Amino acid sequence: MPTPTSSPSPTSPQRTRLRHAARLAAAFAITLTVTACARLATVDSNALWKIVDIRCVPSQQATGTPGQCTRVDLEKRYVILKDIVGRSQYLLIPTDRITGIESPLILAPHAQDYWVDAWGSRHDVEQSVKRTLPDNLLGLEINSPYRRSQNQLHIHIDCMRRDVSLALGRHAKDAPGQWHWDTIDGRRYRIMRVTSLSQAGNPFRIVARDNQDAEAMATQTILVTGAGPSADTDGWLILNSGIDVDDGSGSAEGLMDHACRVADAP
């Protein structure tokens, strides 16, 4: 039986070419992965749910690490995921199958206060931009199903546009619990200052008071931001609009700044 012969060792120029080829292949693989993720989000309305249910939660349960997510809270039943869009945008996503703002599950008696959890996760935004920001320059937002690509509830967590924050300053001292209509960035919103985001102050419950079925809730968008630099003392502003409102909107995401330019200001 012939004795196998070893392949000759590559010369130094060959090794250089091989290393270069390997780097190119790795870079190409990374590009394909990122592109595939972006494409997945646009063509698969269940992409976020699959990330949570197949990658993040099982990883946390098996290894104690969050997998593709930034954080997994099994007790409170949500994950925090860095969005592929933007410098500092994060998403809070329930670990339960909840389609979105229109789901009756968000109004169940013992439903999780996702807005409280999302607000507590604003520090992930600050870590991304390596700067502490006043609460009125940070925001949370959820879109109507008519203005979203994903059918798993997700709350956007990111920076606010500075011009929007300045415009909202006129509501910083509004009496809590009362709606005031205003035009912000060319769209009509009703705005309420609250002193808590939990229980009766839960934005889902507040908006649902006069949108009492899934069909009505499905037309709504909600944005939450600090009423002033410290929400603990100044409270929060809830912005609400709907696609059935004259000059209204099913999305308030445009009031946020996924480039977080406020973090670069002196």
SSE diagram, text form:
Layout: H1 12-43, H2 47-63, E1 71-73, E2 78-82, E3 90-94, H3 114-120, H4 122-129, E4 138-142, E5 155-160, H5 162-168, E6 179-184, E7 187-194, H6 203-208, H7 214-217, E8 220-226, H8 231-234, E9 236-242, E10 256-257
Antiparallel strand pairs: 1-2, 2-3, 3-5, 4-5, 4-8, 5-10, 6-7, 7-9, 8-9
Cα gyration radius (Å): 23 Å
**Unreliable runs, pLDDT <50, ≥5 residues?**
1-41
- Class per helix and strand makeup: alpha+beta
Q: Indicate the CATH architecture of the domain at 83-264.
A: 2-Layer Sandwich
Under CATH, the topology of the domain at 83-264 can be stated as HIT family, subunit A
The CATH class designation of the domain at 83-264 is: Alpha Beta
Number of strands: 10
Q: How do the SSEs run, as a string of H and E? A: HHEEEHHEEHEEHHEHEE
- Average pLDDT score: 88
Approximately what portion of the residues adopt beta-strand conformation?
Answer: 15-25%
**Overall helicity:** 25-40%
Q: How far is the N terminus from the C terminus?
A: 77 Å
Largest sheet: 10 strands, antiparallel
Shape: globular
- Name of the CATH homologous superfamily of the domain at 83-264: HIT family -  CDH-like
Our count of helices gives 8
GO molecular function, one term: CDP-diacylglycerol diphosphatase activity
Keywords: Cell membrane, Hydrolase, Lipid biosynthesis, Lipid metabolism, Membrane, Phospholipid biosynthesis, Phospholipid metabolism, Signal, Transmembrane, Transmembrane helix
EC number: 3.6.1.26
Family: Belongs to the Cdh family.
